[in-house]
Specification:
This protein has 21 helices and ten strands. It starts with 5 loop residues before the first helix and ends with a helix.
Length: 549
């Protein structure tokens, strides 16, 4: 490969390795079987995902049963009459379920929503099992011990046992922290029941979001509704774009274009006078839309033979509540976090400049792909940034510092439970794909680990949460741990560089843009992290960030 540049050499190596991982070295019979496996997997994964997207589960509640929900929640909810009683039709979607679980004051309402949410798509259990079994067969046919071994082979953390060791170490530290937090929430619920003259039985999964919010609001005098009034979606988007222009020299210009829905917007992105790419924003929920926040490559950037540049096109997708009947679209701080996280992926794709599309933007090692987004999340825990982003949608007054301080102070609340839930998915994922045998009962493993690792209490109700674990089936199989690892790297980079240089230091942001974002996957990303930090990564900042000593 003499005469090839480093990126060309990497391309050849990846292509050869890719052919081998696709069965090039197998005999004809095994190659044919591998083709059958790939075909079956594609159909299985597509059906699994479609079942979630097309799920039409609904619940009927009276207005009283939905006590605690704001008036805006009911604006687009149809009414039906059942036995002479008017009830709202509530689709069991992620946006609706999160609001009900956080805000509904009646436990029976929260319980009904929780059970409906985690008993959806029963047919997916069989599809999940098929996907796991097919992947295990494929991996062993290619000479790997397990699907996890096959998947991690080309990542930075390339050994399943290394991943399990990391997760077990973190579990040892997180579990006592989470138990203390759950005990506190249990006591809050017990006191709440006593004050209302209700019988207290136990603390259940459907109580978690509600009493976490209650604890946060009481401890830090936080009014969630008031906070949302300072984060009007159009204003936040505009101010985020202004921030990116200030710190990274990126200018977002809205353009008129044919789009797939009236609420979708298209932006041209410029670096001073140099064109960078296009960005679609599809921010609001609607029926049958992809249910989670995500960023999609529509076209990757690359350099043509002529030397001309093919520019990237990226779409940011979220499911925020639509503005309806004069009611504005407002973001909770958690919604703001989602928006900024996905914007991190957008920036990675826009700022990357590679010769080959294979290495463009987020096409890095899978165990680094979340890190730039998690790094960017840190800005919304920075008071000076929140004051730039938060403006009351009616008065146009900036968010008061006392509210900002309360938001920041509330960050560590129930962090142990939060990260233990992330750890549960990572342990579950690696467990079903790194089983020593040829078969593992994926649903049984989920239910067992949910209780033993995530410390869940469903009150004896049988749920099938495994049926909607989209990330385990599509895209993040054996790689759910990357959220935790990426969080650790992100905390280190932000704390080390921006903690020292300041969050508005354009020189540091431009160095981050050029050293971390620009190369995409065209070089060893851990060398880039080392260069940006000036040393090997450490995890102290992450432990401090989540409240662990």
């Amino acid at each position: 490969m003499d005469g090839l540049c480093s990126e060309d050499k990497l391309l050849v190596e990846r292509m050869v390795n890719g052919y081998c991982r696709s069965g090039l070295l197998l005999d004809e019979d095994k190659r044919n079987r591998l083709c059958d496996i790939e075909s079956q997997l594609a159909k299985t994964v597509a059906e699994f995902t479609a079942n979630i997207s097309n799920d039409a589960s609904k619940l009927l509640f009276t207005r009283n049963e939905l006590s605690g929900l704001p008036a805006t929640f009911f604006a687009d909810k149809p009414l039906v009459t059942t036995n002479g009683i008017e009830k709202y039709v509530i689709c069991v979607t992620k946006p609706n379920s999160m609001l009900v679980l956080r805000l509904a004051t009646l436990e029976e309402t929260r319980k009904a929503m929780y059970v409906a949410l985690f008993t959806r798509c029963p047919n997916n259990i069989e599809l999940l099992q098929q996907a796991v079994d097919l992947r295990q067969e494929k991996a062993k046919m290619l000479g790997f011990k397990s699907h996890a071994s096959y998947t991690l082979d080309d990542l930075s953390m390339n050994n399943p046992d290394m991943v399990l060791d990391m997760l077990n170490t973190l579990r040892t530290q997180l579990t006592p922290m989470a138990r203390r937090e759950l005990a506190q929430l249990r006591a809050i619920k017990q006191a709440d029941c006593e004050s209302k003259g209700l019988e207290f039985t136990d603390f259940y999964d459907w109580d978690l979001a509600y009493y976490k919010r209650t604890k946060t609001e009481c401890t830090h005098n936080i009014d969630s509704t008031l906070i949302k009034s300072y984060f009007h979606v159009p204003d936040v988007v505009c101010r985020l774009f202004a921030l990116f222009e200030e710190i990274m020299q990126l200018r977002f210009c809205k353009v008129d274009a044919s789009v797939w829905h009236p609420l979708v917007e298209l932006y041209e992105v410029w670096d001073t006078n140099e064109f960078v790419g296009h960005c679609y924003l599809d921010l609001y929920s609607r029926p049958r839309k992809y249910a989670n926040g995500a960023t999609f490559h529509i076209r990757s950037g690359f350099t043509r033979k002529t030397g001309a540049r093919e520019y990237p096109v990226v779409a940011l997708v979220t499911n925020f509540v639509q503005p309806t009947n004069g009611e504005p679209a407002l973001l909770s701080h958690a919604n703001l976090k989602t928006l900024v996280h996905e914007m991190g992926h957008v920036l990675h794709n826009l700022c990357s400049v590679t010769k080959w599309s294979m290495f463009h933007g987020t096409r890095v090692c899978r165990d680094f792909v979340e890190c730039p987004s998690q790094m960017l999340e840190n800005i919304i825990w920075t008071p000076s940034v929140l004051q730039k982003l938060g403006v009351h949608y009616q008065t146009k007054q900036p968010i008061p510092l006392c509210i900002v301080d309360a938001i920041i102070a509330a960050k560590p609340q129930v962090a142990g439970v939060f990260y233990l839930q992330k750890l549960f998915y990572a342990v579950y994922d690696i467990s079903i794909y790194h089983s020593p045998g040829s078969h593992v009962d994926a649903s049984l493993v989920y239910n067992t680990l949910e209780k033993n690792v995530a410390l869940c209490n469903t009150g004896g109700i049988e749920t099938i949460g495994a049926a909607t674990t989209r990330q385990v089936v599509r895209g993040y199989d054996s790689k759910c741990f990357v959220y935790l690892w990426g969080q650790a790297l992100a905390a280190d980079m932000f704390s080390t560089r921006f903690g020292r240089d300041g969050v508005f230091n354009q020189q540091t942001w431009m160095e981050y843009r050029n050293v971390i974002l620009r190369p995409g996957g065209s070089t060893d990303i851990m060398n880039c992290v080392h260069q940006f930090l000036g040393r090997k990564p450490q995890y102290n900042a992450f432990f401090t960030q989540i409240g662990l000593d």
